[in-house]
Design the sequence.
């Protein structure tokens, strides 16, 4: 999956993509193809909208076309988070995991103070600007002895951090095969996503 330019504005993204598949879980909100929120970009994006707090979460899961196993992967995505939106999350999941299972081995929260938090812990880094396009690039290295992620922010954002995946979740990491963009039940607002790419660099 990359951009969503071939998708009709106003409907959900197609489940079958040029590479991989997309699964949606609208919950109390919606997952909809929209015109670019960026004036200089004529492409289509996907909007994850969760308008009401304390209601079921809203998510889009992007799955790889095949299981790759241990190795190094480069993951990229472009995001647009408007002023006033609640916390937005990007997380990493196992291949062929059900769309309604949120089990993950790593997740990034784009916080309301415009920094990025890792795995709900005390670690935060970087900064991003609202109402502007920015990109996140994650280099994942996954193997039998452990997994690491180097996270970098570009465009209207800056910062870089390398973290170790929790060893207790290594078996999940070794099944890597999907990304999920979502907004949780306690937050309200929307954010937009495009240019979702996963490249297996080495085995």
Sequence:
């Amino acid at each position: 999956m990359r951009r969503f330019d071939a998708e009709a504005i106003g409907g959900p993204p197609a489940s079958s993509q040029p590479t991989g598949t997309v699964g949606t879980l609208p919950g109390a909100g919606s997952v909809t193809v929209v015109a670019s929120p960026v004036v200089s970009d004529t492409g289509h994006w996907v909007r994850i909208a969760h308008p009401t707090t304390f209601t079921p979460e809203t998510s889009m899961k992007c799955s790889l076309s095949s299981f790759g196993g241990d190795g190094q992967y480069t993951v990229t995505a472009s995001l647009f988070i408007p002023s006033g939106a609640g916390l937005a999350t990007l997380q990493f999941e196992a291949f062929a995991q059900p769309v309604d299972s949120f089990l993950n081995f790593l997740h990034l929260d784009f916080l309301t103070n415009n920094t990025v938090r890792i795995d709900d812990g005390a670690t935060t880094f970087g900064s991003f600007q609202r109402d502007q396009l920015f990109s996140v690039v994650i280099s994942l290295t996954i193997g039998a002895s452990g997994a690491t992620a180097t996270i970098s922010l570009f465009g209207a954002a800056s910062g870089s951090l390398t973290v170790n995946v929790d060893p207790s979740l290594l078996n999940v990491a070794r099944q890597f095969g999907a990304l999920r963009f979502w907004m949780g039940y306690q937050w309200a607002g929307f954010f937009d996503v495009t240019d979702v790419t996963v490249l297996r660099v080495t085995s």
Observations:
- Helices lie at 170-173.
- DSSP finds one helix and 15 strands in the chain.
- The CA atoms of residues 94 and 176 lie 4 Å apart.
- The radius of gyration is 16 Å.
